[in-house]
Structure formats: structure tokens, C-alpha cells
Amino acid sequence: MKQKIIIWLSVLLLLVVVVFMVKDFFYQPKSSNDNPYEYKTNKLRYVDPSLIGYKEVAQIKPDIEQLHGIAIDKSDNIYLAGNDKVIVYDNGLIQKSFFKTGKEARCVAVDEDVIYLGVQDHIEIYDLSGNHLKSWNPINEKSVITSIALTEKFVYVADAGNRIVYQFDREGNLLKEIGKKNVDKGILGFIIPSPYFDLLIGRDGELWVVNPGRHSLESYNERGDLISSWGKASMDVDGFSGCCNPSNIAMLSDGSFVTSEKTIERVKVYLQTGEFKSVVASPENFEKGTKGIDLAVDSKDRIYILDPVKKIVTIFERDKHVN
Hints:
Number of strands: 24
Oligomer: single chain
Helix content: 10-25%
Largest sheet: 4 strands, antiparallel
Structural class: mainly beta
Low-confidence stretches: 1-39
Strand order of the largest sheet: 1-24-23-22
């Protein structure tokens, strides 16, 4: 008798298990198919409108197959570089000229009368009329040039492939490597998991470099000494998230930083101290997955955002109605 009871209990338990299995397979609620990670990411992409301190005022839609880099000169002329040409716009956003390069430029920098292009492993130099002046020697086979910054004496080049910044003189002679790990000098080294590695010259001539793998910005003097750094790794809007952010930077006239990010696509402004100030463009302004959002600032502190997916440049200015 006892054995029969055990058998019937086993059969009943099996039936219960089968019922729950059928329910799981055929009667799941709609929400069970949602990806919880995607939900979490979508939630993080939301930006409180009260944090947005800028408004879109204009767009540039260049005739270019691939759009990579932007630079603005002292007269607010705009230079856009891409897969095989450079397009120049005046400060009224009217196209002035263009010239073919036949090479894919990942970044561009401009001074009084010279245009510098980063082409994979070396620098190409053109005059303002588009005449090719010089090609600097490639650094090495690992080089991926992602940013160029200019001073009166030096040309600074960010190399994502070698995870280092080079200081050249104006003739293309390599003078110094900056940012190489040196614990005694407090330099931890650049962590560059992806080919986004940006730099700029600050108001006092100091060099600012993004260290994306450390979610920070670092400043160096011309001797290569580390001066200061700031950053915040966080999924919140006031920090930098993901494996490696920010991806690109620019600077306003008061020394505030403009930053762009990937994964959670957004553009923000930080004070000189690194304190979050406001959002310029939220993820709603970009297609999901957009990377390489290059930045520039003109003499009126308008922020130019290069969108390589939409192939446009969007101009934002401070919204005076926002505190």
C-alpha cells in the first residue's frame, strides 16, 4: 500500500511539473520577451529636459560619403574631412570650397594658412587652396591617428594604435612622446580600447588629452609633465559610462569642456574643474550606436556636433531661457 501511495505522489508531482512547463512555453506574458538589459540601457538614455541647456540653431549637410573630422579656424570657417575630400564653409554656413585628397582623413586641424589631416598612420599637409604641401613619414605600422592639436611651436598627434601622444615640431620632426606610463611621475598611461582618442590645446597653452579607458581628461605641459586630471566613471548623466568615454572633446572660451560619448550617445558641458554643467544633445538626437561624434566650438561659443551616421553637422547655442 505504501509503495502505491509513493507511485501516485510521484505521478502527481510529474503532472504538476508538466503543467508549469506548458504554462512557461505557451502562456508567458508579453513582457517576458523583453530584454532586461535593453530596458536598463533605454532607461539610462533618458535625459531630464531640465538638464539640457542648449538648443539646435542650424545644420550643415555636406556632400560627402563618409564624415569624420571637423575643425574651425579663427575666422569661424568650418573644415570638414572625410573619406576623400575636405569641404570648407564660411561663418554663414555657406560652402566656400572643397578639394579632393583621395585619402581617408580621420581628423583635421587648421591654423593660419595650413590644413593638417590625419591619414591612418601619418600626417598630410595642404594649403588653404587644397594644394598638397607635404606628407610626414608614417610613425609605425600600428599607428591610428585620431586627433591633431596645434600651438605656435608644436603639433600634437594622438595615436590610438600606439596609445601615445606625439609632440612634433612644425617641420614634422618627432620631439617627444607624452603619456607613456611612468608611475614615479604619476602618469598611469593611456587606456585606449577603441580608436577614439582626442586632444586639444587649453587656454594657457596646456595640452588636454582624453584617457577614455580611465573615463578622464589629463593635462600636460610641453615638457610632457602631467599637470592635472579630472573625470568620473558613472552611468549617471554627470559621469562617463561604458568601456571608454568620453570619445571627443572641445573647449569653450571660458575654459569649460564639451564632451561627447558613445554607447549612451550624448554631448555635455563640464566646468574647468570637471563639474558637470549641462547637456547639449541627448541620445534622442542620435541614432542608437552612433560613434565618433566629433566636436568643435566657434568664436561665439556655438557648439558644432559632427554626426558620422546621419552625415550632418548640427550647431547648438546656449539656450538663454535655461538657467
